[in-house]
Fold this protein.
Amino acid sequence: MSARSLDQLERLLVQQDEPQLSPEQYKAVFRRHPAGVAVIAFQGPAGPVGFTATSVISVSAAPPLLAFSLASTSSSWPALRDATTVAVSFLSDAQDDVSARFATSGVDRFADGGWRALATGEPVIDGAVSWVRGRVLQRTPVGDSYLVALRALEHGTDADASALVYHDRAYHRLGDHTAI
């Protein structure tokens, strides 16, 4: 995100005459909001790039669109800025170690294996509940992050797997597939 864009956003926010949450208050709210866990992965100039995300959202079924956010300060951002396609692997409840690995900075997140490249090159995490390969449509600067919109191109699912959930700084297993 350019300094100019951030300055414009800051001016707009200052113009609004209403109090807002502090970063600590905001984080406290979202720590209490459970979220599914995904790994976003793609081919970068020096090989595969990937990171953990709990911000993946469904945007539209027709056309099939999804989105996620990534901090502009992320080590993955420079490669994502130029990526044309990515794979989103929704992790299973047995993959908290995979989530932790892809959330760790300064390590080769792909070195331990547990993934495969699609025919088009994007890495997909083995054992994920489901995955979606998507074309990047838009990268929108929002605050200190980017909202990245994708058009879903292909997918895979594992009907026997259960999703990994992140809530209050800890991983959780849903375990019971019974809807209430």
